[in-house]
Structure of AcrR family transcriptional regulator:
Amino acid sequence: MPKEKQTTKKQEKYTLILDAAETLMKKKGLYSLNMDEVSYFSNLAKGTLYLYFRSKEEILAALALKARILLLAHFEKAVLNENQPIQQLKAIIHANYTFLKNNPLYYELVSFYEINDRETETEEMSAVILRITELVIGIIKNGQLAGEIDSRIDPSILSFTMWGMTVGIMQLLKVKAATISNHPNLSENIVLDNYIKVFLDGIK
Amino acid sequence: MPKEKQTTKKQEKYTLILDAAETLMKKKGLYSLNMDEVSYFSNLAKGTLYLYFRSKEEILAALALKARILLLAHFEKAVLNENQPIQQLKAIIHANYTFLKNNPLYYELVSFYEINDRETETEEMSAVILRITELVIGIIKNGQLAGEIDSRIDPSILSFTMWGMTVGIMQLLKVKAATISNHPNLSENIVLDNYIKVFLDGIK
Amino acid sequence: MPKEKQTTKKQEKYTLILDAAETLMKKKGLYSLNMDEVSYFSNLAKGTLYLYFRSKEEILAALALKARILLLAHFEKAVLNENQPIQQLKAIIHANYTFLKNNPLYYELVSFYEINDRETETEEMSAVILRITELVIGIIKNGQLAGEIDSRIDPSILSFTMWGMTVGIMQLLKVKAATISNHPNLSENIVLDNYIKVFLDGIK
Amino acid sequence: MPKEKQTTKKQEKYTLILDAAETLMKKKGLYSLNMDEVSYFSNLAKGTLYLYFRSKEEILAALALKARILLLAHFEKAVLNENQPIQQLKAIIHANYTFLKNNPLYYELVSFYEINDRETETEEMSAVILRITELVIGIIKNGQLAGEIDSRIDPSILSFTMWGMTVGIMQLLKVKAATISNHPNLSENIVLDNYIKVFLDGIK
DNA sequence: CATGAATGAGCGTTCATTCAT
DNA sequence: GATGAATGAACGCTCATTCAT
């Protein structure tokens, strides 16, 4: 068998496992993933899982990577649709929110690795965050050049800050969804817009 | 034995258990707390633990309450030291950061119950968060009266937003501590100050 | 305090405990009785229970004794209402069934000690069964004298047999209640009457 | 490894567990069976037990099924040895008694599931009882055709009654074994024969 | 490569009984 | 006599990982 073919087959199983894990986590949540079920739903023997992933944790990491990559793609797409730096930042925050809404599991995975300092965080994973950071930094720099963003703020620090604030707001929206929907003059969108307003006004 | 004395003794054991749990969590992290070790380190039989707490979860909740109360106290103290609303908000964010640095476990507990919507969240626990919220809302209103904060922003929404952003920044500082300290022109304080600046400028 | 008064008070607590145990068992079944709840519902400290009963098992035994005594009383009453030996035996079986229906817990206790060879079975408890046996033997002897019951059967053996058969039928009625009520031409009464018929015809 | 061989091996472990459970229950009684000991005596890790049985209860159910099947086999064999319906019924009762004597644990299991309405009773288990019932009903019908059994009695009701009575007598013989052997003119066989006589006379 | 049977430490919780006060 | 805090063995069950085949 040609090596290529083998690799393909290998890739297939790898994907099979990840898909099974993803489906299971969507159904039962991040924390109740267990290898028995991954084995069952991937139609692969339990031992086989360990040929493709060194541990359960590694499966999580792989999915978290996938989630980050998808998030980056959403950000990049959002940015392309806008011309003005300020609008681009706004678009990124909105994209973040849309991502959270459409892919709650993926967002949970992103947060999970963002909040907990996992030892399994690979360079590959960090690289994606780096690219997100660079994307934002680029926009900020453009904004500063265009005089729309306060030039005295260090772009990389600001991108850092923005990431932290945004993740915080997203978590708030996720966790306090019930609280928010009960309030008379509160809604997720209002909170989100308020955040965007404060943030954008703050960096002018 | 006088009843008072008994209550004191009972309180002592309660504290003993919480202390053991706290120590263990500081050593091994929030998630690896187990009742066997709590029993061992509190010098109490395992069954005894259940005389004071209905479940392991209840121990966590008790510690989370303790953490919230302490956080509130820090906020209140910080506010008292300042006169100007803007300075008070600043002081709260700084207090939050100090709290995180000095009591990482407590902060983790606050976040834990903030992020995960635990069913064990009692009214007592919610009440503390409410008081924090009201503290912040009060300051915002004062700021608006003094013309220092944009009056068009709804105070309760803003307090909500501020809480989300701040928690997000704190998490960032916690998780990315290593990353930050490696950067040449980055430091936790710079990130924090940048956040404060953006936030305060944003609400003017 | 006069000794009599003390004894009365002692008796009161004893009864208090039994009542609590009985109420609890009626609510949750024979097997889920636990000393914590007995303590709580009797308003007596847990240690106090052990001043009146050496063990949980002894509480059960005391209730089983009570149940047997009540059963005997029902039998005696049933017998008094009839003149003919055959009618008296019939009345006993009916009384047994009524007892089961009206006091399911008591019947369960009777069966429990009948089926399992408990080590706690006291002489007092055996004595009640003996009195039931003697009651039945007396009737059988009368029946034989009156020529209504086959004289070749040993009365004590027959009373023994009757007890076994009847307990068996009662259990069947209790356990298979659902099965019976589902059958088109079956009912508890039909099964009971059939048993009585077979039994009475069998001893003629 | 051929699949057949695997199945054999799997069957072996299954049997190993059941055997260990059986041995333990013979030694310590039905109720003190626990998974730790089953694990120890089967030379299998505790987790392994759960590969073959979903729960402890399922082990009990498996043994109860085994017991019922064996009982049915005894009944069928007993019936085959006789030609006359009455003799066949007699043989069934005797077989029941022999079974109780030779396999007290199995009998206890049969009773256990007969007395307690377990939720784990499977269709397979019910089916065996059904076959026993049908066996008896068939004999009764034959007896009625042959004019040896009162035709006015409904066969299914009678089989029901017979089962109840017989189980009752067997329990009596089991529990009161000591009492019986102490009596001067009592023996298990006398009680049994008396029961059989009463029953058979009663259905004529 | 692939399998899946086997492992066993680990878990949270219960509860009859004891005993110092 | 009365208390009730304390005990700790016991329990059924889970699950990530290993390894002989």
